[in-house]
Every structure is written in structure tokens, then in C-alpha cells.
TrEMBL record:
Stored InterPro entries: A-D-PHexomutase_a/b/a-I, A-D-PHexomutase_a/b/a-I/II/III, A-D-PHexomutase_a/b/a-II, A-D-PHexomutase_a/b/a-III, Alpha-D-phosphohexomutase_SF, Phosphoglucosamine_mutase
Keyword field contains Zinc: no
Similarity section: Belongs to the phosphohexose mutase family.
Molecular functions (GO terms): phosphoglucomutase activity; phosphomannomutase activity
Protein name per UniProt: phosphoglucomutase (alpha-D-glucose-1,6-bisphosphate-dependent)
The Alpha-D-phosphohexomutase alpha/beta/alpha domain, residue ranges: 74-217, 245-350, 355-455
Lineage, highest ranks first: Eukaryota, Viridiplantae, Streptophyta, Embryophyta, Tracheophyta
Reactions the enzyme catalyzes: alpha-D-glucose 1-phosphate = alpha-D-glucose 6-phosphate; alpha-D-glucose 1,6-bisphosphate + L-seryl-[protein] = O-phospho-L-seryl-[protein] + alpha-D-glucose 6-phosphate; O-phospho-L-seryl-[protein] + alpha-D-glucose 1-phosphate = alpha-D-glucose 1,6-bisphosphate + L-seryl-[protein]
EC number in record: 5.4.2.2
Top-level division of the source organism's lineage: Eukaryota
Keyword terms: Carbohydrate metabolism, Glucose metabolism, Phosphoprotein
GO cellular component, one term: chloroplast stroma
Amino acid sequence: MLDLIQVSNNTTPCSAFLPAEKTPSLPSTPRARRPRIRTAKPASRELFLLTSMAATQGASDVLSIDKVDFLKLQNGSDIRGVAIAGVEGEPLNLTELVAEAIAAAFAAWLLNKKEADGLRRLRISVGHDSRISAHKLQNAVTHGITAVGHDVLQFGLASTPAMFNSTLTEDAIHHCPADGGIMITASHLPYNRNGFKFFTSDGGLNKTDIKDILERASRIYEESAHCGKQEQTGVVTHVDYMSIYASDLVQAVRKSAGNKEKPLEGLHIVVDAGNGAGGFFVDKVLKPLGAVTDGSQFLEPDGLFPNHIPNPEDKAAMEAITQAVLNNKADLGIIFDTDVDRSAAVDSSGRELNRNRLIALMSAIVLEEHPGTTVVTDSVTSDGLTVFIEKKLGGKHHRFKRGYKNVIDEAIRLNSIGEESHLAMETSGHGALKENHWLDDGAYMMVKLLNKLAGARTLNPNIGSKVLTDLVEGLEEAAVTVEIRLKIDQNHADLKGGPFRDYGESILKHLESVISKDPNLRKAPKNHEGVRVSGYGGWFLLRLSLHDPVLPLNIEAQSKNDAIKLGLAVLAAANEFSALDTIALNKFLQQ
């Protein structure tokens, strides 16, 4: 169903971008009458966008805007900020005006990307998760895009993977493909946060792209306070894109079962959407495939997340879906994060299929289809996973860095140099497949599990999730698994005013020196992040956080005593650095 809305925005050409000799002198009084400006043709496409940013007050108003450090909104390849005021120590920095500027900046960036002339109308899809700030930011983003003459496809409640897919879908009736997509989400962060993810048909944007967009947005934001009025027009179309996206998932499962209409008939599958955007999976995917979904929970969107954090890594979240499986005697449980780019599962016995187990399961499925392929993971995966992938499955495990985009980009790079890779996964639940355009899609990953179930049930209609559990048989798992975050005090004199990253690197370098002198410890010969060390039947990894002044320490061992021995080795090196807070590590060692 489509709903077309013509949007006419009174937007303002900024005098700062007119030729010098034609720039009128504007009175400083906010409500002063503006002189008529005839020159409206800027020197470049970006200036065109700058000059036509929408004013949100009356026709003669000059906007009063707060100073914003846009670059501080960058979170790797995403944008994150505080969109709801009221939490102590977290000032509002993702306002509607900021969102408008970012949306206009993305349009400017996209025009350059498409190498079109400045008058081309783009179609940009906009969707959001269940956060309570979603609607106001959706309106602001829509306003920012339509104000500069481009069209918006509003999807409403959507998943992050669907936004990327909208740039690939060939469907003229629904105005797809979109030239670009914006997802309004902050994943599993608290209710007061929100942010943006951006897509083109090439995939998600990288860190450099985000920096570029934020720099453009900063200029647009500053200039929008000094603008007069100019008519600009964009069209907003409301599209039920999630039905299109879900239909593709349904067809994928049917195809794997020989085009059987209801290949999951008789299977009882419960879903926990955590009050995020994943509730669609029940009515639009599982039920059309014939599955029984009684007992599914927290499907209604609620941006306050009253039941548990929608995060497949969260202990309470996994306990909730496990209990739902056991209470309902279900064959399988599925859980999504807020925007459905991550997921995990639980088998009929209540065994969690997340983190290393989920990577092992996906590796088993992918290596059946592509024998010998390389599986790229983040840096905190276990030694047992390496043995499982390489010794049991006959694949290759390429352990890389934390950050889902890092993992995906590394898999793409390996393929570009002739090393075949079909799977890139993080222990967080982000999983991307080459067959799915390297998109980290939690729903598609669960469809891969459903494909395996559906295919097996064509041979044995009584088979349940045991077919999945059997695939990870032989995965060696540690008895003790911990992550301890060691914080760097950026104000400590030991830093001498330098950046925390330099201080962190010096800690890692000293740790390497300490380890080299201990005959019981062995540094990993090939490692891409931090210092990874094996010993005492286990391993540890100390690395710098991607964004924060923190050194996360991961330890896995077969006993608590062995884990303590590994922790003591780290403490011996860490004690030399007085700006490093080791309270959490000491607490673990004293338990």
C-alpha cells in the first residue's frame, strides 16, 4: 500500500553562499524583515543543499541554534547520540535540527556518490526501530531531505537489513530501488539514545564516509541559522516495505525445501523481539511457512524496552528466550536485537546457540555449501572455534578485529585477493554472508537455520532442532569465560596530557615484553588486534576499545584457577601503569 504526500517546504538561501558583491547586509534582529534575494544559484551541489536547508520557524525568523560538535556523534561507521533529555550526565545532542542537517548532508554526499548533476531528484528510504524518539527523528530526517528537493520513501517501523535491501529491490510499484537508505536506530543502547545507519546499493557506509557527512552537516547546521525563504519541493511516499522484505525471506525457505508451501508445518518456534523491530518475523515469515508460534513474546514495539535489553549477548535476554522455549516445549527459539541486524537461537533442550556456538553452527552450514572456505570472525572468538572450523569442518578460520564492519570488510578484502570467504561473523551476533551482499542481517541468518530445518524435514518430517544442535557437536568450549573492562583515567598525570590510545598502546607493548619472559605463556603468532596469549590450557586477549578509553580483557580457561593464572599475568604488567583502573580485575582474581 502506497500513500503519497506532496511536501512543500519554505527553505532559505543563505546569504553567506551568494557571490560576495551580491550578498545583502542582513539586520541582526531576529525578526527583522529580510530583503528579497534574487541570486539563488550556488556554486556547487553542496552549496545548493546548504542554501536550501529548511527553517523550522516562521517565514521571517532567524533560527537560534546551539553549538554542536558533529564529529562527536560518530560511532565508527554509525552515528549515535542522545535524543531524549532527562538522563543525568547525558546532554541532548541529537536534536531535530541536527537530524535535519545530517539528512541534508547525506543527500549531498549521495549526489556526489551518484555523480549526478545538482538538479537530480534522489529517492531516499527512511525507516526506524521502536525507540521513543523515532518518530520525531523520522520527521526531521524527512524534512531535511525533502527541503533540498529530494523524495523520501517512509517505511515506518523497519529493520536495518531491510533498509539496505531497499536499495537493491527492483519494484517500480513501490518506488524501489532507493538511491540510498537511512535507518534510525541505536541498536541495543538505552532508550534515550538514537542514531543513524546509512546505505547505498554498495552496502553500509564506512568511517571515512560518516566523517565526511558529519563535516557537511556541521556546515549546513551553522548556515541554516541565517537563511531567507525559497520554495523547495519533495515527495514523501509511505511504503509497506517490510512485507516485501519478509516475502523474500519466506521464498528463500520454501526454495530450500523444494518449493513446499509450508515447509515448517508442525514445528513450534517462539520468537523474542525484545520490544524492538523484529516482531514481523512471526506473522510475516514463520506463520506463512506453517510454523506454530504460540509463546512468542515481546513482539510489540516499545522503545522503553520494559522486559529486557534487546541484545543476543545480554544474559537476561538469553534467559528470557530460553525460558520461553522450555515453558512452551518449543522446537526452537529465536531472539533479535532492536533493529534485527543481530540474532541468536535456542534449541529444544534450552541450549543457547549464540556467540561461538552460533558462529560454529553457521560455519558448519556454510562449509557444507562451500567446502574449504575461510570464515572471518572478530578477535575474541575461542581457540576451540578455530579447532572446530579447521579440524572438523575443513575450513579456515581468519580471526580479525572487533567491529562488525571490520570483519565484513576483511572478508571482502580476502575475496578480492583470491582467498574465498563466504561468512563473516562477530560473537555479538552480527553475521554476514557473501550470498546476501555481505549484509549483517539477523533475520537472514535465522532463515539459514530454517533452511537447514526445512530441508531436513523433507526427508524426516519428525525431525526438530536436533539437526542444528548436531552440527556443533565436537565444539570445545571453555568452562570459564569472562570479560573485564580496564578503564584508563584520561585526566591522570601519567598520561602527561597525551591521548588515551597512546597510553593504551604502551600498556600493550609492556604486556608483550612481560609475556616473552614467561615460559608458561605463548603469544599468538598471528593476531590482528591487541595482545592474545595462550597458556594454562586457555587464553586471554587484551585490546584497546574501538572508541572508549578502555582495555577490554577476555579470558577463557578450563578452570577458575587457570583463569586466575592468566589474569595474574595481565595484572603483573598492568600494575606498572597508575592511570589504568584494575579494580575489576583484582575483584575477579579475589573471588
